[in-house]
Amino acid sequence: MPDLRSLPPIGVSLYRIVIGFLMACHGASTLTGFPVKATTGHTVSPTTWPGGVAAVLQLVFGIVVMIGLWTRLSAVILSGTMAYAYFSVHQKHALLPMANGGEPAALFSWAFLLIAIVGAGPLAVDALLTRSRPGGAEPVGADVPARRFTIAR
């Protein structure tokens, strides 16, 4: 039986993979109508502001988060993109996300903020690159384990 202490880090990786995949699908749907038609019923050009540019960011950074490359930076960018979408598109219709249709934007924003804080987990390209470096040098933007501090008395 596997050690149960190894499950939370793997859970973090699975959470990141699923959220990144969902965001990439959302961006691809908006740009191309694949894997399903966009929620608006039509696709947008990648050069259209803000919807097309946001869809490109969602597709590209969703894939990058999904594979776990430059995870924290990509998650911050996507969290900000979703916060911008919520406040610029949805907030003007009503205060609460349930009333203004902004639940997905709010949830994605907080989900990516959590990924930016927690990191990619062990099943990520970032972790693979860290393990493959001689001497264990940390690449820029790598996930660094939390350090424990003690208070001297």
Characterise this structure.
With 153 residues, the protein is mainly α. It has one domain. 59% of the residues lie in helices and 0% in strands. It has six helices and no strands. α3 runs antiparallel to α5.
Strand and helix order: HHHHHH
How many DSSP-defined strands?
A: 0
Query: Low-confidence stretches at least 5 residues in length (pLDDT < 50)?
Result: 139-144
C-alpha geometry: globular
Rg (C-alpha, Å): 18 Å
What is the distance, rounded to the nearest whole angstrom, between the alpha carbons of the first and last residues? 41 Å
Total DSSP helices: 6
Number of domains: 1
Hey, roughly how much beta strand do the residues contain? under 5%
* Mean of residue pLDDT values: 85
Largest sheet: none
Helix/strand/pairing category:
mainly alpha
Q: Helical content, roughly?
A: 55-70%
Based on the model shown, name its key terms:
153 residues, mainly alpha, 59% helix
Question: Quick recap of the structure?
Answer:
The protein is an all-alpha fold and about 150 residues long. It has helices at about 5-30, 50-65, 70-90, 95-100, 105-120, 125-130.
List the helices and strands and how they pair.
Layout: H1 7-32, H2 51-67, H3 71-90, H4 97-100, H5 103-118, H6 125-132
Helix pairs in contact: 1-2, 1-5, 2-3, 3-5
